Amino acid sequence: MRIPQHRTPHRFALLLGLTTLLAAPCSSQAAIWYAGEFSADIIISDPRTPGNKARGTFHVAKDRFRAEGIHQGKQKVMIVLPTEHKVWMLQPEEKTFFAGAGNAPVPPKPDRERLPGDVDGLCKQERGITCSKLGNEKLNGVETEKWEIKLTPPGQPAAGQAPEVQKVLVWADVQRHIIIRQQPEAGPAMERVLTAVEKVNGRDTEKWAVSMIYQGKSQSYNRWVDSALRVPVREEENGQVLMELVNIQEKSPAATLFEIPKDYREIQPPIPATPAAGDSGQRRPTENSAPAAQPGTLQYR
User: Fold this and answer.
1) CB burial of residue 278 (10 Å; 0-12, 13-18, 19+)
2) CB 203 within 8 Å of CB 246
3) Which helix (H) or strand (E) holds 199?
4) Residue 57's domain spans which residues?
């Protein structure tokens, strides 16, 4: 099952884009990672075909993860080592592997973000970005820092023209390390509200109502975040559960899970099929396929 990509740009996606894990603007900037080590099963539903579900298992260690699932009737394994900028796809039935992303369920992005005040954040390291703290403000019952961020696009403006500057207001929850509200001059505005603290599958969670307004259209959904691991364990839209983590076990995964077995042979990555004329390239979901993990395709927001 491929996760649909027909949603509004910058949709708060269910899955983790691998570029989020692998990209580091500066060598001193580590990737945002999970709050603990754990293993879990993931169930993902296609909102267009509610009965169509993809299932997988993943293991999260201190600096890497392994995801397993079924794609087109065959078992697929993805191993991601962000600090080494490596992704491997394993095909256990053929005992082969190749470098790069393929088709396998991937864990949700940690519910943690880089904030304007972070010493290793973009405000400190990226050219063309300036940040000003405007003060502290209680927003929707949560203590936040309010920031104004100015972004100057790369490249020199034409002669006689002032550089274009884009402004964004951000309310940051420093304790949880998340953005509570994002309000740009142009582009999608986002806000999240803590509505309840409740148990999901026996674990303590925070329930958040997340909404976005873009070009006069609004979209909202509910997200339950594990209080200890700071990872989304359920996402629901219009009463339909789109993603759920179950059977969570807090433990250190075995180191061998992140190694390529010695009897596997390396092969060349498969060449993507070229869509026929009039074909969007989207495959019809089947019960034996898994979400595609394509760098840069699945965005968190």
Assistant:
1) exposed
2) no
3) strand 189-200
4) 18-110+248-266
pLDDT in tens, the chain (301 residues): 333 333 332 332 322 333 344 333 333 345 688 999 999 999 988 777 777 788 899 999 999 999 998 877 889 999 999 888 899 999 999 999 999 877 766 778 899 998 999 988 888 877 788 999 999 999 989 999 999 999 887 766 666 677 788 899 999 999 999 999 999 998 899 999 999 999 999 999 999 999 999 988 999 999 999 999 999 999 999 989 999 999 999 999 999 999 999 999 999 988 765 544 444 443 333 333 333 333 222 222 2
8 Å CB contact between 142 and 180? yes
From the list 288, 297, 244, 222, the residue with the least C-alpha distance to 4 is: 297
> H helices of 101-172, where?
122-125
Asked if residue 197 is part of any domain, the answer here is no
Residue 16 to residue 109: CA distance in whole angstroms: 5
Place of tokens 């940051």: 172
Same domain for 101 and 33, yes or no, is yes
Interior CA angle at 126 toward 132 and 214, to 5°?
70
Which tokens is 13 given? Answer: 């996606």
